[in-house]
From TrEMBL, chain A:
This is Cytochrome c oxidase accessory protein CcoG. It comes from Sphingopyxis witflariensis. The gene is ccoG. Residues 253-284 form the 4Fe-4S ferredoxin-type domain. SUPFAM superfamilies: 4Fe-4S ferredoxins. One of its GO terms (cellular component) is plasma membrane. Keywords: 4Fe-4S, Electron transport, Iron, Iron-sulfur, Membrane, Metal-binding, Transmembrane, Transmembrane helix, Transport. The chain crosses the membrane at residues 33-51, 85-106, 158-177, 193-213, 343-361. Pfam families: Fer4_18, Fer4_5, FixG_C. Residues 465-485 have a biased composition (Basic and acidic residues). The lineage of its organism: Bacteria, Pseudomonadati, Pseudomonadota, Alphaproteobacteria, Sphingomonadales. Residues 461-485 are annotated as: Disordered.
From TrEMBL, chain B:
The keyword Electron transport applies. Gene3D superfamilies: 6.10.280.130, Cytochrome c-like domain. Residues 304-315 have a biased composition (Low complexity). Residues 118-209, 216-297 form the Cytochrome c domain. Binds 2 heme C groups per subunit. It holds the Pfam family Cytochrome_CBB3. Component of the cbb3-type cytochrome c oxidase. One of its GO terms (biological process) is oxidative phosphorylation. One of its GO terms (cellular component) is plasma membrane. Belongs to the CcoP / FixP family. Keywords: Cell inner membrane, Cell membrane, Electron transport, Heme, Hydrogen ion transport, Ion transport, Iron, Membrane, Metal-binding, Oxidoreductase, Repeat, Respiratory chain, Transmembrane, Transmembrane helix, Transport. Heme c 1 binds at residues 131, 134-135, 274. This is Cbb3-type cytochrome c oxidase subunit.
């Protein structure tokens, strides 16, 4: 049976070649808005590593720096240590909820305007137009034979692609080292191998994802459209073809011949021609639509030419669509944007931000972690006292050297000394110098009278001796032999 | 040839979905159907690329398991070879600090905190290999067997030079001329003192160490102590590091300070032995071990007893600073 069935019809291909997308040039408010967003995001991406920020002699002067080697993250006046990574986690959560806010209010605006895949694809499509001409010229060239002109144009185009891709990869590594130094090292061949590797990988991915895969990334690879599909509801703004106004479609000629028989859509196909993902918005909401709104610009332009009101394709919620279809009016845009769901997301987003700012303002920059050495738990000293050993980790998170005091409370008759000192100089407190922006391990010896409980809690505290006292303390145990009581 | 009209039914209910124009896979669960959307072609290319990559990898790197080994690959790469490379690189990285430690006299090590820190770290690693078997993790010692290295009581001296000498030459190595050595007589076993005399000496020792109140027995013991023990342990029981004789007046007892333990020790002393590491370990490792033991908490800034090294001056080869 199987063989007969297989012979019956040529089975459809399991694989589908990419259909070329050659979006036409368009102008309008949304296109200009996209230009602005592209300019701002690219400027931020390429420019940020070059902003300088003075932090004194003990810290780098790059405003935004992810210093992996020394495990520090600098962002303007904020310095994050590895143990404070939860701030970064908080930022990521804020970014996630930020996407919720945006999706709830304006649908897939992230996809349409700010996503790097969209921005770079847009950039590469401008390169296409620059080298090959607009839509029709591009299609002619793509379908035409490999003439000298085509080879020349392709060479120039791919060279520009590669240049953009290379600068994209090159800008990325600047976030991880001092940008001017790294640039010098990069071109003189002295940079780390990982820098060249990263640039190579990012050049390749930018070249392939931006130059060739483009909308395939959004449709096949990216999880975000699927998540957004689940997050949208009937009150989210969508780019909508108002079929109740446009259908049935007909050219202006036909409409003149049969007044009243045709809708506003003149079936000029401009909305399809300008679409960067190659879809037909008139088929309704679909996963391929990134809501870049270029079809709105295109359609509004055509409607102006034929003297019909704008907005045949427009941002519209499913609720508004139903209302308009029934002859009602859409609710005001302010109400659509400021609905409770959006405001709740915004509230959560703002609360996390405020909490993080508050805790940033409250965090100590002198930290203490105490570890009780357990082999041996205690040491019998010759004069009958008992000594315990501790390893202190003193974190000086300020970019200046500091002098701090370590003292003990709750342990009567305690004598403290460090590796550098000796028992003869032991006292109730020790002073320690900390280098700037560093963790200093200190071996602390504490001797106490042999008579006492076998396990005793006490507190080790540290405070600054340079006017800024605020420090940290840790409660820890002092152990004695059971028989000493 | 089968009539093409029968194809959908024969293929298990496949049909063309209206909205997308795509065929379904033919299954249906409670009205839910699955579209047979074609894969993008580039996905197929990516799949072929991974196959090509795998072929190249198999040729270049160890891949096929054989009975006792695996195919070696054209590049000859092995993880053991990687390890050797890393170890060599690390040896190169450590060379300057190792050379600096080698060139620094042991007594000057504390004056150079950087070197001292490196030496303590290196010593900590070496200690775990060579020393923990007796002296315990962290040098805590073993009660009534091996001395703690963390306290402030030293049999042979707790300054860097003395510790280095002990580590290098060992204790009571009969076949080594410059080893640290001494021998406490077996007062009971060899019949030097009778049981009553030993009991009196034990009383005396427990009085001078503050563990018992003075008694008639202790007074008798004081005389016996002066005649038999003071020559090494000192008239007041203060000990003598020249001969590794422990102080008897403090709170630290290597073999126990209670009556039974003291009696056993005087009856038949242990005379503990430690190997000489000078012939097994290189001078830098010995310096590192010294620095580590010194750092455990009991290190002494300078030698309390002058020249606590028996026969060190008459031995020509090994120097006092632990270098050979």
């Amino acid at each position: 049976m199987a063989s007969a069935d297989l012979l019956a019809d040529p089975p459809p291909s399991l694989y589908e070649a990419r259909k070329g997308v050659y979006p036409k040039k368009v102008d309008g408010p949304f296109r200009r808005f996209k230009w602005a967003i592209m300019g701002i995001t690219l400027a931020i991406y390429y420019g940020t590593p070059w902003i300088r920020w003075d932090r004194g002699p003990y810290a780098p002067d790059q405003a935004v720096l992810v210093d992996l080697a020394n495990r520090r993250f600098y962002m303007f006046q904020i310095e994050i240590w590895p143990h404070e990574f939860y701030y970064v986690a908080g930022l990521l959560i804020m970014a996630g909820i930020g996407l919720f806010v945006v999706t709830s209010a304006v649908g897939r605006a992230w996809c349409g305007y700010a996503c790097p895949q969209t921005v770079w694809t847009d950039l590469f499509q401008h390169v296409d137009r620059l080298v090959d001409g607009d839509r029709n010229a591009q299609i002619r060239l793509a379908n035409g034979p490999w003439t000298a002109e085509k080879i020349a144009k392709r060479t120039v185009k791919y060279a520009i692609y590669l240049t953009i891709a290379f600068w994209t990869g090159g800008a990325w590594i600047m976030y991880f080292a001092d940008a001017p130094t790294l640039t010098r090292e990069f071109w003189s061949g002295d940079a780390a191998l990982v820098a060249y590797g990263t640039v190579a990988v990012l050049t390749a991915t930018t070249f392939i994802l931006g130059g060739f895969l483009r909308e395939q990334v959004c449709i096949y690879m990216c999880p975000w459209p699927r998540i957004q599909t689940a997050m949208m509801d009937e009150k989210s703004l969508l780019v909508t073809y108002k079929d109740w106004r446009g259908e049935p479609r007909g050219s202006t000629k036909k409409a003149q011949a049969h007044p009243g028989a045709f809708g506003d859509c003149i079936d000029c196909n401009q909305c399809v021609a300008v679409c960067p993902t190659g879809i037909d918005i008139r088929e309704g909401p679909q996963i391929g639509c990134i809501t870049c709104a270029l079809c709105i610009d295109a359609c509004d332009g055509v409607m102006a030419q034929v003297g019909r009101p704008r907005g045949l394709i427009d941002y519209c919620t499913l609720d508004d669509a139903a209302a308009e279809k029934a002859g009602g009016v859409a609710q005001p845009i302010r109400k659509t944007l400021l609905r409770p769901r959006t405001l709740i997301y915004l509230g959560i987003w703002g609360a996390i931000g405020a909490a993080m700012l508050f805790s940033l303002g409250q965090r100590t920059r002198l930290d203490l972690a105490v570890q009780h050495e357990r082999s041996p738990l205690y040491v019998q000293l010759s004069d009958g006292m008992i000594r315990n050993n501790y390893t202190l980790k003193l974190r000086n998170m300020e970019t200046r050297p500091r002098r701090v005091e370590v003292s003990v409370t709750g342990l009567d008759g305690a004598q403290l000394w460090t590796e550098a000192g000796s028992r003869e100089e032991a006292a109730q407190r020790v002073e320690i110098s900390l280098p700037p922006d560093s963790v200093t391990p200190v071996k602390l010896f504490i001797a106490a009278p042999g008579k006492g409980p076998a396990r005793q809690d006490f507190t080790i505290a540290t405070r600054g001796l340079d006017g800024k006292e605020r420090g940290d303390s840790d409660t820890i145990q002092f152990d004695r032999p059971e028989t000493a009581e | 040839m089968v009539d093409s009209d029968n194809f959908p039914a024969a293929a298990g209910g496949k049909r063309i979905d209206e909205a997308t124009g795509t065929s379904t896979v033919g299954h249906e669960w409670d009205g839910i159907e699955e579209l047979d959307t074609p894969m993008p072609r580039w996905w197929l290319w990516t799949f072929y690329a991974t196959i090509v990559w795998a072929l190249i990898y198999v040729i270049l790197y160890p891949a096929w398991p054989l009975v006792n080994s695996a195919t070696t690959g054209v590049l000859g790469w092995t993880s053991r070879g990687e390890l050797e490379k890393e170890m060599r690189a690390d040896a190169v990285r450590r060379a300057p600090i190792v050379n600096a430690i080698a060139a620094t006299p042991i007594a000057d090590l504390t004056a150079k905190p950087e070197l001292m820190r490196a030496a303590v770290q290196g010593g900590s690693a070496a200690f775990k290999v060579h020393c923990v078997q007796c002296h315990g993790a962290g040098g805590a010692g073993v009660a009534k067997l091996y001395p703690s290295l963390t306290d402030d009581d030293w049999l042979w001296g707790g300054d860097l030079t003395s510790i280095a000498y002990t580590v290098e030459h060992g204790i009571r190595n009969p076949d080594h001329k410059v080893t640290r050595t001494s021998l406490m007589p077996a007062f009971g076993r060899d019949g030097i003192l009778d049981a009553k005399a030993i009991a009196d000496v034990v009383s005396h020792i427990r009085v001078i160490s503050g563990q018992e109140k003075p008694s008639a027995s202790a007074t008798r013991g004081a005389t016996i102590f002066a005649d038999n023990c003071a020559v090494c342990h000192g008239a007041k029981g203060e000990g003598d590091r020249k001969v590794g004789a422990p102080k008897l007046t403090d709170a630290i007892w290597l073999y126990g300070g209670d009556r039974a333990s003291l009696t056993a020790t005087i009856d038949a002393p242990r005379n503990g032995v430690m190997p000489r590491w000078g012939e097994r370990l290189d001078p830098v490792t010995i310096k590192m071990l010294t620095a580590y033991v010194y750092s455990l908490g009991g290190g002494e800034k300078s030698a309390l007893a002058p020249a606590p090294m028996p026969a060190a001056s008459e031995a020509k080869g090994p120097g006092a600073n632990g270098q050979r």
